[in-house]
Amino acid sequence: MEVHTLLDISLARFKNLFPDSPRVCYGDDFYVMDIKLSEDSQPLGYPCRFDGYMLLYCVKGRIRLNVNLTEYQIEEGMIFMNVPGNIIRVNEILDVPKEEVRYVCVAMSKEFLQGMQLDANKIFNEGMSMMANPSVRLTEKEIEMVRCGLEIVTRVVDSESLYKREAMLSLLSSMFYMLMGVWKKRGEPVDQTQTTRSKIIFDRFIKLVSEYHTQYRNVGFYADKLCLTPKYLSKLIKNATGRSAPEWIDQYVILEAKNLLKYSGVTIKEIVYRLHFPNQSVFYKFFKARTGMTPTEYRNS
What we know:
Elements: E1 7-9, H1 11-16, E2 23-26, E3 30-36, E4 48-50, E5 53-60, E6 62-67, E7 70-75, E8 78-82, E9 87-94, E10 102-108, H2 110-114, H3 120-132, E11 135-137, H4 140-157, H5 164-186, H6 196-212, H7 219-225, H8 230-241, H9 245-263, H10 268-274, H11 280-291, H12 295-300
Parallel strand pairs: 1-4
Antiparallel strand pairs: 2-3, 3-10, 4-9, 5-8, 5-10, 6-7, 6-9, 8-11
Helix pairs in contact: 3-5, 4-5, 6-8, 7-8
C-alpha cells in the first residue's frame, strides 16, 4: 500500500495545485478559482490539512472524499464547506473524465474571515450543523443566488475599487448568512437556549484543542489557557455541545492517530512519540477503549 505523510496545505499552495484554472485573488488571503483538472492530475489524493476556509460548489462531475475519515460524495448542485483543521483526502472522481470536472472554489484565510461582521451566536449555531454535515444540495433558486453572488464578488476582487476589501467583506457576509440559512434548513436543529458565553468559550476551546491536542490531553491545560477552572470549563463545554471537554480532546487525538496509522508509513512507536503518550501500552489502551480495535488491528483493517 502506498503511504503518505499528512501534509499541511496553505491557501497559496492549494491554489498552485491548479495552475491552469482561472482565478481572481486578493493576495493569498482570498481567492475565487474555477477549478479544472487535467487528465493526469490527482489533487488531494493524499491526506492533508487545509489551513483556511474553503467553499466548493460543484458545477459538473462527482467526487468521493474523506473529511476526518468520514466519506462524503459531492456532485453537481452541491456545496461543501471545509474549516481549518479538517483532514481531507479525495478518494475518487466519478462519472465524467477528469478534464470535464468543474468546481468553483472560494477560499479565505482565518484572518480574512475575522474582518467580516458576523453574529457570533449564528456562527456557533449554524456552524455546529455544518460540522456535522459539511455538504448540502442546493435548490435551483439557491444555485442561482450562489452564482450571482460569486459573480459580483469576483467583479469586485478584479476591480480597482478604492474600498475593495470593505466591499468584499460586506458581500461575503451576505453570502455567509444566505448559506447558513441553507445549512439550517437542511441540518439538525441546534439548541438555541445555550448562553453566548458558553458558545464563545467553546469556540476558543476547540481552536486550542486543534492546536495542542498532540501534546496535551488534560482539561487543566486548556482551562489554564482560558483562565478558567477545569470544572467550570467542563460545565460550559457540556452545556454548549452536549459533550464533555475530555470527549472533544479525545476525538481530536483519535483522529490524528487514525490518520497516522492509515496514511503514513511511520511506526506505532513513532506515533506514540508524536502524540506524547508515555509508552505504547498506554497508547494501545487509549486507542482500543475509544475505537474497539488496537492500533495494529486498525492499521491492517
